[in-house]
Amino acid sequence: MIRRFDAALMRAMPELTPEDVFWRMHLLVGGLHQSLLMMDRKPPGACRRCGWTRRAIYGGLWLLRRWYSARNYRRCEPMKRIAGSEFCVGLALAAALVGLTGCKVGPNYKAPQTSGPASWTSAMSGGLSKAAADTNLLARWWTVFKDPTLSELIERARVGNLDLKQAEARVREARAQRGIAKAALFPTVGANGSASRITSSKESGTGATSDLYAAGFDASWELDLFGGKRRSLEAATASWQASVESMNDVMVSLLAEVALNYVEVRSDQALLSITESNLTARSETYDITRWRHEAGLTTQLDEEQAKASLELVRAQIPTLRTSLEQAKYRLAVLLGQPPGALNEVLAEAKSVPVAPADVAVGVPAEALRRRPDVRSAERKLAGQTAEIGVAEAARYPSFSLLEASAWNR
């Protein structure tokens, strides 16, 4: 196989003798060796294997340099040249394999350790308890109200809300960016081909027709010796996880807003019904007071007080109706629909949802860990830590394996 490689190399560069090729390789390897020696230092945050990886690479380059600079190379026999080629190729492959398993520069991420309060500052009263909350129940907390309309609105909001769709699109974008970062670890392969037919003119030539075919193949692979690409993958993974937690944060806020506005709708409907009943009663009271004043049984002051009380209640109705319509419109927008789309669904007045008497809140540390915004911030910190390794790896040289071939007929 080595003989075939040497023969192919000589065919690719027929103007160079074997001695010229190997002396040029001597200069290249020597310069590379000196460049790495000038930058020789342990990167910050590197693992213990980093020193052994650098020593293996430098040792291989030193042996290559010594081999190429041997004074008796021009007088060696052909078999020694073949053995030398095998030795050099083996060393180069060994150095590449060691580099592929090398360490990653930059600091390794460690999750911050925070200590929260052991208990809540307020007393556990009114049905609150320190018992651990049921995660399955928390995932569908709105079902404890046992309101079918509220459950329907929640499900419609999860499907149609525009802010949630935007957050989901950001998650897909981050996942695609992670795929790009992961693909950078693998070789890049390309191929091309062409075909043409040429016919010469009968007046100026022979009129013959010839077919030309060409095909090409190229491949490249940048070795991740210092872990820059792996750090980039870590950063992309953390960014993707942060976008997922941000989407969960949008989801939590959305469902809470839907429930709050639904409760406001039912509360306004109940208040409006009570106010209208009160208006009817005040109207009857005013009529009775007016009749009694006409009969001389009461004074004008009593009649005016009854009328003022009636108008005061009447003035509250437009405000309540406006608040009710605003709550309906906000619900429609949260569901991704135009204002007024839920008028038929919410036309019938129903009772206000009532929370259960007992609520398990757990301890403050558990509540903090359940917050999506806190988890998103922690993932962003992990991504920025990995970006330090990406910037650190950019200070070091990069190595690539290239291969190209072409075929013409």
The Cα radius of gyration reads 40 Å
Shape: elongated
Number of strands: 5
Summed up, the domain count is 2
Enumerate the spans where pLDDT stays under 50 for 5 or more consecutive residues: 1-6, 33-49, 71-87, 97-101
Tally of helical runs:
11
Proportion in β-strands: 5-15%
N- and C-termini, Cα separation? 26 Å
Q: Please summarize the sheet with the most strands.
A: 3 strands, antiparallel
Name the CATH class of the largest domain. Mainly Alpha
What would you say this structure looks like, in words?
The protein is mostly helical and 409 residues long. The strands form 2 sheets. Strands 2-3-5 form a 3-stranded antiparallel sheet. Strands 1-4 form a two-stranded parallel sheet. 60% of the residues lie in helices and 10% in strands. It starts with a helix and ends with a strand. It has helices at residues 2-12, 18-38, 49-68, 78-100, 135-139, 148-160, 162-183, 228-294, 300-334, 364-369, 372-393, and strands spanning 128-129, 188-199, 209-223, 359-360, 399-408. α3 runs antiparallel to α4 (78-100). The chain has 11 helices and 5 strands; from the N terminus they run ααααβαααββααβααβ. The radius of gyration is 40 Å and the shape is elongated. 18% of the residues are buried. The protein has 2 domains: 2-103, no CATH class; 111-186 and 228-400, Outer membrane efflux proteins (OEP) (Up-down Bundle), CATH 1.20.1600.
